[in-house]
Write a structure and sequence with these properties.
The protein is an alpha/beta fold. It is built from ten helices and six strands; from the N terminus they run E-H-E-H-E-H-E-H-H-H-H-E-H-E-H-H. The protein starts with 8 loop residues before the first strand and ends with a helix.
Length: about 260
């Protein structure tokens, strides 16, 4: 984990780690004077092996994010990390200068939707524990949402798989139960009150999240929507140059 005063804080996705952003993103940010603070979320990376439910609450996770950054700072999240980043910005708007949400969602709007998702996540958590990390990684990577990852170079695919396998299935199961989409409150109603300048970033081939991103950008008072052509759910891996252009341009704008 890297710490730097006022530098952007990056939150990775489920089954990832702070290293999963890749060298192109980290070096690209550093190259324009924005060396990032890289955070391992509960149950991932340096926290693989932890299963204490108290470590996987939203409050505990937001405390972890606050502890590693030097605030106020920019906050960048991908997928699960974007959801956590949005919760952090809503809870601590005075700490976040600019917010970047890649392939993110404010969560589910109704209790019924969240209950259905919790049941699905509970089954997914059991699968992780029962099948082990390798089988679960293969299953996770094979989901339709990641279909566009086939365009990644072999080096990126192999390195991402290696990083994913360093995680622990029981810890990932705990993360699903405590921090999954069904476990957290929805934030759709909070979006109109969040005045933090926000970049909503999504791949054009990630059709479900293009819809979510469009709705988010419309609801946020100060948001910019960027849809990256030819990219799916993992824009930072599939189109790192375009990701850096959009993100660094947004973060370095005069403020």
């Amino acid at each position: 984990m890297t710490e730097a005063r006022g530098h952007p804080v990056l939150l990775h996705g489920f089954t990832g780690s702070s290293a999963a952003w890749g060298g192109a993103i980290v070096d690209g940010l550093a190259g324009v004077g924005l060396p990032p603070v890289l955070v391992d979320l509960p149950g991932h990376g340096r926290y693989a092996g932890e299963t204490d439910p108290e470590r996987f609450t939203l409050a505990s996770t937001l405390d972890l994010v606050e502890a590693v950054g030097e605030w106020p700072a920019d906050l960048v999240g991908y997928s699960m990390g974007a959801r956590i980043a949005l919760h952090f910005a809503v809870s601590h708007p005075e700490l976040v200068r600019r917010l970047v949400l890649e392939a993110g969602s404010p969560g589910l709007a109704t209790d019924a939707e969240r209950a259905e998702r919790r049941a699905a996540d509970t089954a997914l958590a059991a699968r992780a524990v029962d099948e082990g990390m390798l089988a679960f990684a293969e299953f996770w990577e094979g989901q339709p949402i990641f279909e566009t990852r086939r365009a990644l170079t072999e080096h990126v695919v192999v390195s991402q798989r290696a990083l994913r396998l360093r995680n622990d299935p029981a810890s990932l199961a705990a993360a699903l139960k405590g921090l999954g989409t069904g476990a957290l409150p929805g934030l759709w109603e909070a979006l109109p009150g969040l005045t933090t300048p926000t970049l909503v970033l999504v791949g054009a081939l990630d059709r479900k999240f293009v819809g979510i991103a469009s709705r988010m950008a419309e609801a946020l008072p100060d948001a910019r929507l960027v849809v990256v052509p030819g990219a799916g759910h993992t824009v930072h891996l599939e189109r790192p140059t375009e990701w850096l252009e959009a993100v660094t341009g947004f973060l370095l704008e005069e403020r």
